[in-house]
Design a protein that fits this description.
The protein has 91 residues and is of the alpha+beta class. Helices cover 41% and strands 22% of the residues. The protein is built from two helices and four strands, in the order H-E-E-E-E-H. The chain has helices spanning 3-27, 73-84; strands at residues 36-37, 47-51, 57-61, 64-71. The chain has a four-stranded antiparallel β-sheet. The relative contact order is 0.12.
């Protein structure tokens, strides 16, 4: 097997692992999780997060609680570190 073929195989295996991790994350029952948000009134629109197993995080809009995004620990960490570094600051 050539170096290029080994690299392609490694990339395919990594992609498959990430997809399996995401599938498992979305298969979790999160009906009983505790949602956290910044303080505000009941009519305020807020971002809410819930901490899941293995460091994963679920996030939703308080006005649309049925739409939930889920992030692996690595994805959430990358987002938080990027926010701290100003990666998402408007210029």
């Amino acid at each position: 097997m050539s170096t290029e073929q080994r690299q392609e195989q490694a990339e395919a295996e990594l992609k498959a692992r990430k997809e399996a991790e995401k599938d498992a994350l979305y298969a979790l029952d999160i009906s009983g999780v505790e949602w956290h948000s910044a303080p505000g009134g009941p009519d305020d629109e807020k971002v809410e997060i819930a901490y899941l197993d293995d460091g994963a995080v679920a996030m939703r809009n308080s006005k649309e609680p049925d739409t939930v995004l889920r992030y692996t620990e690595a994805e959430w960490r990358a987002f938080v570190l990027g926010a701290r570094d100003g990666e998402f600051d408007l210029k």
